[in-house]
Amino acid sequence: MKSVAAAPEMTSAEPTPSWMTRSRTWVGAAAILLVLPHIPGLNADFGRSLLSQMGIAAVFALSFNLLLGQTGLLSFGHAVYFGLGGYATVHLMRAINHGLPVPVPLAPLAGAATGLLFGVLFGSVTTRRAGTIFALITLGIGELVYATTFMLPSYFGGEEGITASRTRGPALLGFDLGPQLQVYYVVALWAIIAAALMYAFTRTPVGRMCNAVRDNPERVEFVGYNTQRVRFVAFSAAGLFAGLAGGLHAINYEIVAADSVSALRSGTVLLMTYIGGVGRFIGPVIGAAVLTWLQASLSGYTSAWLFYLGLFFMAIIVFAPAGLAGLILMHRPIIRMPAFWRVLRAYAIAFAPALVMTIGAIVIIEMSYRLSTQPELGTRMRLFWTDIDAATPWPWLAAVVMIVSGFVVFRKTWPIVAQAWQQATTEASVAAGAR
Amino acid sequence: MHSIFRYVPVVVALLIAAPAAADVKIAFIDPLSGGAATTGILAQKTHQFYIDAINAAGGINGEKIELISFDNKVNPQESLIQLKKALDEGARYVVQGNGSSIAHAITDAVLKYNERNPGKEVVFLNYAAVDPALTNEKCNFWHFRFDADADMKMAAMTDVIAKDSKVKKVYLINQDYSFGKAVAVAATKMLAEKRPDIKIVGDELHPLQKVQDFSPYVAKIKASGADTVITGNWSNDMVLLVKAGKDAGLKVKWETFYGGSPGTVTAIGEAGVDTLKQVTEWHKNATPDLDPTVAAFMKRYPGKENEYAYYRAKAMWDMFAAAAKKAGSNDPVKVAKALEGMKMPTPVGEVEMRADNHQLLQPLYVSTLSKNTKYDVEDSGLGWKSDAKVDAKATALPTTCKMQRPT
Amino acid sequence: MNAMAKIPDIEAAPTALELCDLHKSFGPTPIIRGVSLGIARGERHAMIGPNGAGKSTLFNLISGRFAPTAGSIRLNGEQVSGFPPYQLNRRGLARSFQVTNIFPRLSVFENIRCSVLWSLGYRYSFWHRVDSLRDANAQAERTLEQIRMTARRDVPAGVLTYAEQRALEIGITIAGNANVILLDEPTAGMSRREAANAVELIRAVSQGRTLVIVEHDMGVVFDLADRISVLVYGEIIATDTPEKIRGNKAVQAAYLDSAHA
Amino acid sequence: MLELATVSLLNGIVYGLLLFMLTSGLTLIFSMMGVLNFAHASVFMVGAYLSYQFARWVGFWPALVIAPLACGLIGAAIERYGLRHVHKSGHVAEILFTFGLAYLIEELVTMIWGRNAVANSVPAVIDFPLFSLFGSSFPAYKGLMMAISIAMFVFLYVALKRTRIGLVIQAALTHPQMVGALGHDVPGIFVLVFAVGSALAGLAGVIGGFMLLTQPTLANAIGPIVFVVVVIGGLGSLGGALIASMLIGILQTFAVAIDYSLLDALRAAGIAVTRASPLYDFYSIKVATAAPIVPYVLLVLMLIVRPRGLMGKRDV
């Protein structure tokens, strides 16, 4: 007999919230998007540019999750639809620059159409298979398209890509898209429309069948559905929204180059989606925001940032397969319980040794990087406001001691956290029973 | 005891560099992580080295220069993000070089930014992106290039080939993208002009960084009977090609653009001796003795990962400081105007920033990888030996640039 | 709201299911060796036989999971051999599985609703909101009541008890109003009481439909079936009413041979 | 022409055997465990680096043995302390785990050996022309590579089809409980399989490192082509991997020799195409230019014609 206690990630059958709750959520999201670029710290060009990029990444990651989270299809070539949508949009923008009377903010529609077109085209081949083979085929098609962008320079512009201006065109409602703030609002508007449409898609008959195909493709065949066709519909829809994201990318950067269809970008969207959490609709949005921010800022602090990113990703896979969204949302049932404070206190207790452990690891990684990739800077370095010399054994020893002792103490704190959780969940189930 | 004194200049430089009042911020946007970081980090060090020298001499117009670095992961989109970050932090000068695609993205973004933000103009100093378009049809007032473009290098290379009567059959092999195609077109055109008797026996394009085994190409080169191969290939595509040639016992001269780029000599090794040639603005054996600044750089940054490669950075920063002095201001528009047409003597000869397209004219050397040179590269025991030098003036090519200057 | 109206017109066909000299081999090994059988509309037909006789394979052929090596299958008079499962399902045939085969991460209600969507004509629609489909939701709720799982409506199917999952398995099978239903060992692994409940459930839901059932529990078989077929080594050795099968010498011999009750 | 054809055939076989060498460990792991190891190319890269390092310390021949063994140990550790714990989360999580691992290995290699290529040159003992064919020499290390590649095939074939342990392993894939009940240590078997697969990748790395460049981007450079080969061959099929490797190797090599484009074909057919025509770029691509993307085109064609690959059995 199977256990009755559900693991948190098992309950991905998110109950549909009431109409009121839903509209409140969307209005709230729109309000947040409206004020975000005016918050100190984000109200300069860079902040707004980062926000725009997050919005684009969020649409892209959500479209990826139509495949991975909703339909159970792992694609290693999703950037193809993003990039081709971007190229179509930038070409439309060029036409607009030359007098075509279309407002630039509508140009991403060309990207969406192109994404859909290629989603249909390549989807008809790739969705014949699922699982591992599907993953490898998407990888192959990604390589093929990437190689093609260099071979057809008249359309793809070779290595320098295709540029266009977003300001030279008919202004829509007085917006000329010069300032980054306006670009941000265009991105935000499209992003919220796209997110709403994708959310709606998951609540349609075919969206539900996507979930069914993800869970058990064989059984789907016996309730009247052709699994290939279901996958194909999901793939095409994902292509459409990826193309839209590519179109927004074209407006934001005014340039689209071969890197936009590259395997690197396909890998990035996979990281974003998985780290954010594939089981929740909001997951990819969280992942897109976090990773975009890490990419833009962490790289300014350390050249080992890719290594940290890799570690972070692995930690999520092994310890939190439901992603950041899963981690956050698993607290929802207990947040109003009196014992929630005990949980927080237990977290604080566990946090201290974990921090010590992490600092130890960072010290070792940074010293290794320095010695192997930047030996000329010498062995003296400043880490965590302390001057250390990587040529002496002391910092290494100290780091190892920090890792080991941190880990030992950290393990001791697990029962405290578990106990607090136990209490909180008990309270929660009692409260649920009372209701 | 003398070993302590060895560090004195470094320490002094570091102390001086510690910016009390860093007034002129210069954004360096290049790959600093991932696979392409080698060249980016090396260039970062080189620029820092020359900037420290300027600051040690009192800075420009009494202000110190601060180099702030941004990692663009050789990605055009990421470069534009980092550019915005740099502008937010108050940088008015941008330095970049790795990848013409990035340079195109930046020059385009800078042009648009300057249009949209009058009074806050930004100047782009390009130290290595060689696509000729940047100083021709895509030229603009804000972009200055301190490296010879691909056509100029090709002109120098074909000049030397033209003088070599042993060259009869030439094979072109290039990467299938805009730069590779441009190299092939330029080679065909220039060879036809300079040596009509030379036969182009092959004009091959292969996809960028996708070929793992060059043996089939080598077989084709061999079958064509070529004695010289011209290639604009770089990185893996260059090293694997030369190695495959060595494996098959192919006896040709390799005329390359990037035979000397960081790490290449280490990877090719003996396979390139006496056959691998490159066109550069400088190499260690170009002058009888090492330029003192190069020697100082090598002292400050030892190790083969730091093999000095960007001699043009010296000209760039010398000219930048001189232009600021001449303009009497560190304002980018004024400095840019002062840079136009500026001439500067250097140990290898006079260099000049063309006013009509913002392309630096500097002497170019064609050199061959050899044993027993005075200075070797990357501790490999191999070094470059000059075959010929082309004077700065002679490297000039006609331009299609129609420069629009701010009023 | 008459869901029965969605059932294809079956009056024209003489029999619900007709197998004609059906063969299936895996490589050189023949598993089904010439099975012919006609099942009338509304009949409850049980398939029994010793282990390895090919009962599950026969089900897999009928439901389209495997294509037959030779022979033909007619569903409501239409030639359907070699059709993929979803085509058969659209023509009114549904089946359950011996090993529970549900959508583990979907709620019980979603499991059922997914099974009614096609039969109500929603196909690959992305322009309907699934929560606003009154007919689909009503039919799913009705099925939930039939399988007595309304109380477990929003629980993820993967965490149900075994007996509940078996009930859901039957629910998924019948929800789409198929007129021919194949049940593969629906009471396998159940306690006596659970099995009795299951039989009641099956009796109720198979009202007015054609039922083909594979079952090891002879009590269940003789209780439910109108007719019984005995499959031994890929061949039907007898098809008859329960009483006559009980007295059939060949059947007794076959069961004694394989030492199976 | 005959000369070029003969040399091309030889080159094609060499390249095909190199590809097979790269894919054999991957195929082994997949066919036994059902896990697609995305970090396979990374283990290959580690093999190249380790052989470079050991060759400097103890010489080439010992390195040829030590480096693959070390890779095998690394593989065993990956299975034992990583993959096993992800197994319960399904195949997607397993693929993602190895995908993340590939990221980490690249950075680790950078941390240890730096970003530039290391001077992993062919050792003197095998650095001589083995024979000469129409004036082109054939280096000895390529001969060694061919021999090792063929040996790998024979070893895997015999080990899987002709030995008891091979049969037990294959049974472990389909019926783990049954094999476990018979007293075999199934988790132990999986560790062994992963270790052997990784050791094969390491061995390939020792030799492949000479033909390719030993640098941190090596894994990225060969990763995609390796996966294309296994899909075309039929995921998990040893024979399929061999045939697909040879097919790709030879096709690609001969394609390089073809200097014609679609443009020539169109013109020969009397269709006028000028620079102004749409898709002129596309028509004017020579077959030779497109040669390295032949495998990818083949992949797509294969999927349309025969979705399970050349010798694929299981629908995975």
Biggest sheet details of chain C? 6 strands, mixed
Percentage beta strand of chain B: 15-25%
Alpha plus pi helix count of chain B: 13
Instruction: Please provide the ordered H/E string of secondary-structure elements of chain B.
Output: HHEHEHEHEEHEHEHEHEHEHHHEEEEE
In the sheet with the most strands of chain C, the strands line up as 6-7-8-3-9-10
Number of separate strands of chain B: 15
Number of domains of chain B: 2
Helix content of chain C: 25-40%
Our measurement of the CA-to-CA distance between the termini of chain C, rounded to an integer number of angstroms, reads: 46 Å
- Helicity level of chain B, as a percent range? 25-40%
Description:
The complex is a heterotetramer of chains A (435), B (407), C (261) and D (316). Chain A is mainly alpha-helical. Chain A has two domains: 16-303, ABC transporter involved in vitamin B12 uptake, BtuC, CATH 1.10.3470; 332-434, no CATH class. Chain A has helices spanning 19-35, 45-71, 79-97, 108-126, 131-151, 153-156, 180-202, 205-215, 217-221, 227-253, 263-276, 283-301, 305-319, 323-329, 340-373, 393-434, and strands at residues 162-163, 255-256, 380-383, 386-389. In chain A, the strands form two sheets. A two-stranded antiparallel ribbon of chain A has the order 1-2. Chain A has a two-stranded antiparallel sheet with strand order 3-4. In chain A, strand 3 (380-383) and strand 4 (386-389) form a beta hairpin. In chain A, helix 2 packs across helix 11 and helix 4 (108-126) packs antiparallel against helix 10. Chain A starts with 18 loop residues before the first helix and ends with a helix. With 407 residues, chain B is an alpha/beta fold. In chain B, strands 7-6-8-9-10-14-15 form a seven-stranded mixed beta sheet, sandwiched between helices. In chain B, 38% of the residues lie in helices and 20% in strands. Chain B has two domains: 2-148 and 289-361, Response regulator (Rossmann fold), CATH 3.40.50.2300; 151-280 and 363-395, 3-Layer(aba) Sandwich (Rossmann fold). With 261 residues, chain C is an alpha/beta fold. Chain C has helices spanning 55-62, 85-90, 108-116, 134-146, 162-175, 192-205, 218-224, 242-246, 249-257, and strands spanning 17-26, 29-39, 44-48, 70-75, 78-79, 93-95, 180-184, 210-214, 227-232, 235-240. In chain C, the strands form two sheets. In chain C, strands 6-7-8-3-9-10 form a six-stranded mixed beta sheet, with helices on both faces. In chain C, strand 1 and strand 2 (29-39) form a beta hairpin. Chain C is globular and about 55 Å long. Chain D has 316 residues and is mainly α. Chain D has 14 helices and two strands, in the order ααααββαααααααααα. Chain D has a two-stranded antiparallel sheet. In chain D, strand 1 and strand 2 form a beta hairpin. The mean pLDDT of chain D is 85.
